[in-house]
Amino acid sequence: MEGKAVWRLLPAAAAVVATFAVLIATDTSPRSVAFYAFYWAWCVVLPGTLVYRAVRAKPHSLVDDLAMGAALGLVLEMAVFAALAALDLRGLLILWPVPVVALTVGIGPLRRRVLARGGTRAPLSWSWTVAGIYLFLLGYLALEFFVPVTLTPAVNQLYHIDLLYLLGIVTEAKHHFPLQMSQVAGEPLLYHWFSYAHMAVGSLVSGVDAPTVMFRTGLPPLYALAVVLMAVAGWRVSGRPWVGAGAAALTFVVGELAYGSLAWSALGGQVAYTLWSSPSVVYGYIMGLALIVLAAGLMTRFDRMALALLVLFAFAAPGAKSTVLPVMLCAIGLVCLVQLVRRRFTAAPWLIAGIVLVAQVAAVVVLYGFDDHALTFNPLRTLDSVSGYGRAMVLVAFLIYWGARLMGIPLAIWLRGHRFEDSEWMLLGGTIAGFSAALLMFHPSLSQLFFLRAGFIFGAILSAIGVAALVDRLGLQPRQVWHLAAGAGAISLLAWLVLRTGEDPLLRSGEVVPRVFQMALLIGIAAAIVLALGFFVSRRWPGLRRKAVLGAVLVVLGGGLMSLPSDAYYYPNMRGSFHQHVSAQQLAAAAWIRANTGKEGILATNGHCVTPPAQPDCLRLSFWISAFAERRVLLEGWGYAPKMLNDWKGPYCDADLQRANDGTFTDPTPATVHVLWRKGVRTLVVDRRYGRESAELANYAQLVWEREPIAIYELLPTETPDAAPG
After folding, report:
1. How far is Cα 123 from Cα 227, in angstroms, rounded to an integer?
2. In this structure, are residues 117 and 65 in contact, taking their beta carbons and an 8 Å threshold?
3. Are residues 237 and 308 in the same domain?
4. CB burial class (10 A; 0-12, 13-18, 19+) of residue 174?
5. Considering 34, 323, 578, 614, which has the largest number of Cβ atoms within 10 A of its Cβ?
């Protein structure tokens, strides 16, 4: 028995060892890796799993307890963070698991529930498959992001603009609550910020600096949890472990149907580019998958504690990603609609719908402050983002590009539609909602595609259910399915080799549609050949017809297998597109500010544009100071402020404030300096690439640090705008 237990630990051990190896190989210190691993085990997995085991109705499997427990740990962590941050007691964050451990160990009934054995053991082959999916994803992350983005950058290291903005949220959460936009001091942060607060907690508890968490240690645990939770969700909804593994593969291994990589384009992407450039996506997947697991369980067997857990996740989900709950509401809404049509009512879906609706309304009021963040109802405007083709052609390409992996859904409807349970209607509703919202809504940053990403996890599970139903209908054995899947993967690789170009630049918008149709044509021909060969030789070998049917389906499902490798091969770190240079001098200035200014201090800077020198139409998206100095900036880059989302290149909406800010550097007067002093500014950061400071500035501020092209001044005290200080 002990030997078998050791063998069962090997998949998890392989994943952990590989993660440590990748992180250390990409210039992460062993100390940082070890301390951050301790933080995850102590502050996320342990307390969450203890609480989950104490309240869940009955055991399902150990991996289920750990995955759902870790997800619950993230939710509880945010509640504790908000409470302690509001009281300015962040130093106690490391102690929050102590009462959880004490209660579950000290109270007899809870201890017995936590220690009780039972449930189903995950098949060892399933565990290795899930571990392999994570290792594939980790390899993509390493080649695409870790290798090209160093932790100790040389001059002109390229950082993705969004990641600098998001790092600013992490550092804001480390020092302040309620959160503001650290790039525009005084503006409330109306945003789904939980994933970045989670990284802030990880930095505070582990002692690992925020950039290391953001660019290294923070991502692999979230990736691993999302993969395992997807596998668990598919297992729980269908009752079959391999459905979960298949859904995880369709989500995190197989990409969109195109050669090259179009993940950054107007068509978007599910994993490639998205997961490393927007960590809130994978954090949102975790919350969405937990909701799927709990909702499916409640619609099968009502349980009050499961309902309480669903409430917690429903109220946490909007802070994880704003698109999760709207998609979930539509998913449950379809279940309720089906019950209305059939006139067969059960209480669970209606109760779940009510909880999700209340949570969404609360999020709109509290988290988002009724701000629409430039999201508008604009049907099919998404398709116009691809130039050179009509909407009809782009729509077909869009559906092929995203939908090839979901071919199992029509199979599920055909083979199981008349026997669909509430959970399967929920999965179908979430899929439809994701596609519909992406096509009906529009955002200047194409953020409407996050609805599709939120809905895709529903579709991946339902697609895997359809494939499983087809395997059952054909009467094939698992080994035969594995062989056919390997063959489908080989065909996908061959198609990529046939179509790929040697040195693929970032594609122009007009090249997107041909890339989809060319790959679709090649994969379609391959699937047709497989099907035709199976039927041709079936007279002599009758069993081949059934294999050919499944083989053709798997060829289509796996057509995008090379999407992630293509992205890592062609576009590591997106080839520097939409990035900002950060030099060693800038990082040294940020380090001096962290060491010599108080966390409540506010900075002012003359650098607002991504690329100097300043131009009238430049992108006002410079975020490096707030990201690395861990301080609020009066006006750094304002393009992501809710009021400015439709105009990244224009002046700030408060012209007087911008005039006072910039005038302090170029033509300081008692009036301009007093405006900054009254706003709390005590430190000026001059970036001379945008223009040298006026000699008059010495009358109002003292030079305290200088390393070309950066200079730092401390403002001299001022009381009134009528006279210069000193």
Report:
1. 16
2. no
3. yes
4. buried
5. 323
- Please report the sign of the dihedral spanned by the C-alpha atoms of residue 352, residue 358, residue 359, residue 360: positive
d(CA 566, CA 255): 10
Type of residue at 440: L
- Residue whose structure tokens are 């289920």: 64
Contacts of 407 (CB under 8 A, 6+ apart): 463, 466, 553, 556, 557
DSSP code, position 43: I
Residue tagged 């063959």 (tokens): 487
Coil, strand, or helix at residue 419? helix
How many domains is the chain partitioned into structurally? 2
3-class DSSP string for 473-533? HHCCCHHHHHHHHHHHHHHHHHHHHHHCCCCCCCCCHHHHHHHHHHHHHHHHHHHHHHHHH
Domain that holds residue 589: 169-214+583-715
Q: Can you tell me the distance from the alpha carbon of 579 to that of 162, in angstroms, rounded to the nearest whole number?
A: 8
Report yes or no: 506 and 575 within 8 Å, Cβ to Cβ.
yes
Query: Number of helices (H) and strands (E), helices first, in the chain?
Result: 29, 9
User: Residue 150 corresponds to which tokens in the numbers above?
Assistant: 């160093």
Q: Give yes or no for a cis peptide into 211 (omega within 30° of 0).
A: no
Strands (DSSP E) found in 354-459? 376-377, 441-442
- Are 422 and 489 contained in the same domain? yes
pLDDT at 723 over 60: no
d(CA 135, CA 139): 6
Rounded to whole angstroms, the Cα distance separating 418 from 420 reads 6
Q: Which helix (H) or strand (E) holds 671?
A: helix 670-678
454 and 338 inside one domain: yes
Name beta bridge partners: 158.
581
At residue 309, what are phi and psi to the nearest 5 degrees?
A: -65, -40
- In this structure, the answer to whether residues 413 and 484 fall within a common structural domain is yes
Please report, for residues 87, 336, 341, 421, 464, the alpha-carbon distance to residue 413 in angstroms, rounded to integers and kept in the order given: 53, 18, 18, 11, 12
Q: What does the alpha-carbon distance between residue 564 and residue 404 come to, in Å, rounded to a whole number?
A: 15
Neighbours of 472 (CB within 10 A): 12
pLDDT of residue 726: 37
CA distance linking residue 286 with residue 229, whole number of Å: 7
For residues 124 and 112, give the distance between their C-alpha atoms in angstroms, rounded to a whole number. 27
pLDDT tens, residue by residue, 527-571: 999 999 888 877 777 778 889 999 999 999 999 999 999 899 888
Does 65 map to a domain? no
pLDDT over threshold 70, residue 725? no
* 543 and 513 within one domain: yes
Q: Rounded CA gap, 306 and 296, in Å? A: 11
pLDDT, average across residues 32-53: 97
User: Which residue matches tokens 């298949």?
Assistant: 246
Q: Which pair of tokens denotes residue 457? A: 């996890």
Q: What is the pLDDT of residues 350-382, one digit of tens each?
A: 999 999 999 999 999 999 988 888 889 999 999
For residue 104, what are its two tokens? Answer: 């579950």
| Contact call for residues 684 and 604 (beta carbons, < 8 A) | yes
602 by DSSP, 3-state: which? strand
Backbone angles phi, psi at 149, to 5 degrees: -110, 105
Last residue of a domain, one of 542, 573, 604: 573
Residue 717 CB neighbours (<10 A): 8
Question: Cα separations (Å) of 167 from 89, 151, 200, 285?
Answer: 22, 14, 9, 20
